[in-house]
Amino acid sequence: MISTVIFVVCLIAAVLTALKTRGSMFVKGTNSYGNQVEKFSASWLIKPIVIFVAGIVISMFQPFAIEKVDAGHKGLKINLVGDQRGVSSYQYKTGWVLYNTWTEQVLEFPTYQQHIEYEDQGVILKGGFSATIKPTFNYSLREDAIGDMFVNLRLPISEVERGWLKNAIIGAVNDVANTWEVDSIFNHRQAFESAIVAECNVRLSKWFNVSQLRTNITPPEALQESIIAKTKAIQQAEASEQQAIAAISEGRRKVAVARADSAETVINANAAAKSIRIKQSELSPLYIEYLKANAWDGKLPTTVAGNSGMFLNVNKQ
Question: Which residue ranges in the chain fall short of pLDDT 50?
Fold first, then answer.
């Protein structure tokens, strides 16, 4: 931007100089015939051309630049002439920053959450099993540590993400995975990834804060089949246990029903026996004769046999 401004200013200055001295564009002289004529003066262009060329040279080789630090970023103005890893000092900047490109450098570092996705990586689990991960996570820079990070790494944030940060994340995943059994990882993935986040923040807390890490871990095909078989066996065992509990409950229910039915039968039998005893105690001979009398229709038999009191009913021919 500064080079463009210098070029435009020199161009305008050259044009104004030419316009200001345009009176000397022509000079009077005589021709071969001795007549007075006006001739074009090339020397009139020397000064405007010098100004124009000077503008081009200055704009091409001037060392200054101006840069704007965008919102959500922190600018780092670095003095490259020094003995501390090539950095003598640095300053935090915002807004427009003017600097000398020969001796200074301005870098922008984001201060908001960044999302990173890395390609597939191989890791070794406890017991020597291998697995594949494709880590994704969010990170944020500690604003007060940006300068220290640059002094130590001497890299812009994009290169830090592809190099140092990637190695640190993959290393943390490997070290945590080496302490976990295969089936524990896939049965307790949330706890596994939380352990990785904690380890990452222990290692990176000097400059970074890591969150929302997902390993997207996948085991080898043979191991997947083993895990699936084990999971099915566990599910079948749990189903059998539930069936046994259900059977025990059903048996208890049937016993309770049987006891209730038996108690009802006993109660009914006792009631019937008591009823019979009561009726038997009330049946006197006189009461029986009374019942017979009530049941008689008033007709006498046509034949009486002997003195036994028996009546014989002999049909007449």
Answer: 314-317
Closest by CA position to 170, among listed 217, 205, 225, 227: 217
Q: What sign does the dihedral 97-98-101-103 (CA atoms) show?
A: negative
With 0-12 / 13-18 / 19 or more C-beta atoms within 10 angstroms meaning exposed / middle / buried, residue 285 is: exposed
First to last CA, the chain: 153
- Domain range annotation of the chain: 2-62, 66-111, 113-219, 225-285
b or e along 71-84 (b: 16 or more beta carbons within 10 Å of the residue's beta carbon)? eebbbbbbbbeeee
Question: Long-range contacts: 175-179, Cβ < 8 Å, 24+?
Answer: 175/199, 177/123, 177/124, 177/125, 177/126, 177/131, 177/217, 178/124, 178/125, 178/126, 179/126
pLDDT in tens, 63-122: 888 888 888 888 888 888 766 656 677 888 888 888 888 888 888 999 899 999 999 888
Q: What is the rounded radius of gyration, in angstroms, for the C-alpha atoms of the chain?
A: 56
Q: What span, in angstroms and rounded, lies between the C-alpha atoms of 116 and 138?
A: 6
pTM of the predicted protein model: 0.57
CATH architecture of 113-219: 2-Layer Sandwich (3.30)
**Cα separations (Å) of 43 from 11, 29, 317?**
18, 15, 183
Residue 174 tokens, joined:
């490997």
Q: What angle do CA 144, 145, 151 make, to 5 degrees?
A: 135
How many other CB atoms sit within 10 Å of the CB of residue 179?
Answer: 12
Cα separation, 106 vs 249, in Å, equals: 77
* H-helix segments, the chain: 2-20, 46-61, 146-153, 157-160, 166-177, 182-187, 189-204, 221-282, 285-295
